Amino acid sequence: MNTLRNNYLKDKVVILTGASGGIGQVIAKALATRNMRLMLAGRNPDKLQQLAESVKAIGGEAEICIANLYNKEAIDLIIDATLEAFGCLDILINNAGIAQNTAFEDVTVEEYDRIFTLNTKASYFLTQKALPHLLKSDFATVINIASVVAHKGYVQQSVYSSSKSALLGWSKSLAAEYYKKNLRVHVISPGGVYTEMVALARPDLMPDEMIQPEIIADTILFLLEHRHTNAVIDEIGIHRANKEPFL
Ligand SMILES: NC(=O)c1ccc[n+]([C@@H]2O[C@H](COP(=O)([O-])OP(=O)(O)OC[C@H]3O[C@@H](n4cnc5c(N)ncnc54)[C@H](OP(=O)(O)O)[C@@H]3O)[C@@H](O)[C@H]2O)c1
Hints:
binds NADP nicotinamide-adenine-dinucleotide phosphate; 7-stranded parallel β-sheet; 7 strands; alpha/beta
């Protein structure tokens, strides 16, 4: 069974944004176990290079693309680097994102723009640019990492919440527009995952109470390993065991 699964994803080409982050690194290593070909995008060359070595050691292929998604050129850079390295694209994982910890009355226009530009706009236009290449693949898949905050109002996260709600919003439209062309769009909406980001945004949370990033990576493998079935999971919500159920 495992061999079949491994072969199923082998050589599929994936763009992973935010690859250098807490969740991104774990996703990359999980995809490497299925011998996938990864374009690891982020801003930190050292972290990405180190991650690429780990991916190769595990059994995947990896190239890195240093791209700051606040720059418009980053989108062309990532797509061009992927096509140059691998010649095609099967899967896009929009994982790069930033959170916040700012009271509503203190949010500045600059902070609002910074969060929306990365969490909503950059992923939108990266997906738009990737789309013609994805649609050539019989595996065309977009996975957007949203958050539980897309569904619930969290204090001091008003802009983060609205940016992830907007990400969810355009994901639904994208899915509706292209499902007949065999594009699958999935959204994963986790609660607190134990990474550096959450340590900064939610210092009140204890590490051992939180979702481990491996759960997000396993969820992605599950979605991809069921790509051939007629069942499509649009969104998966994942919450901490000590939080009230449902998003
Ligand atoms: N951790 C959680 O509790 C949690 C819960 C729900 C959803 N999420 C979502 O999961 C995703 C990953 O979060 P994480 O916890 O892994 O966060 P993280 O450790 O802070 O990683 C964030 C990633 O985004 C990248 N990034 C930040 N600004 C960028 C920019 N301007 N251009 C390109 N890349 C940029 C970072 O790259 P650099 O190395 O270059 O900074 C890093 O790879 C985010 O979308 C987040 O909203 C997280």
